[in-house]
Fold this protein.
Amino acid sequence: MSRVSVIALALGLAVSSLALTASAATAPSPAITAAVADSNRPQADKDRDTDRKPAEMLAFAGVKAGDKVVDFMPGAGYFTRLFAKAVGPKGRVYSLLPNEIATRSQKAVDGQKALAGDKAYGNIVPLVEPVNALTFPEKVDVVWTSQNYHDVHAFMGAEAAAAVNKAIFNALKPGGVYIVLDHVAEAGSGVRDTNTLHRIDPETVKKEVEAAGFVLEGQDDALHNTSDNHTLKVFDPALRGHTDQFIFKFRKPK
């Protein structure tokens, strides 16, 4: 290979690397800023904003007015309520809880009930579906899952994870986005720590999601924490709320 070819290859790789992180710098839209400032949000959610950086997360996901968004395994609805205000009255947010989690976690069930009964967010539609046969009422623009991808492995296994990723791929519109945010496990650990430390190796997530047909478009390092050595359980008081987390944006090809 000639010197010119080597330089051209290096420049191409550099451009590709920049492309993967470029979307992380997107400024929050007025709709996203208003969603974070929404006075109807529970105080417990607002208290977590400094650590969870919601405006940056929604901007990275590209959530906009009129979008149809799925919050997969929504917990108590921290992001679900934000999505609801960001997409506005012409949009819709599906809070999708797998049956397998509902039967294990009363907290998850209570979270769904709270979302269904919150009149301040009339465009949220709670759903409970079997993880190996997820169905969606319509094609959607964004599927989001936060701090829960590892739970699919921990409670349901690799086959379930593959089924989930494929169902999400099929549910998205062409060009739609799948965001995965989770706690970082030690490099090379695969799914070893999903049930014990509640972490997962980011490289494992990349491989699994790309196997469903997605293309990795970018990542955001806003929740990266170098003081987390990836050996503690995420609920450890010394670390809870401040774990090292990865955020990947995958896109369904058009």
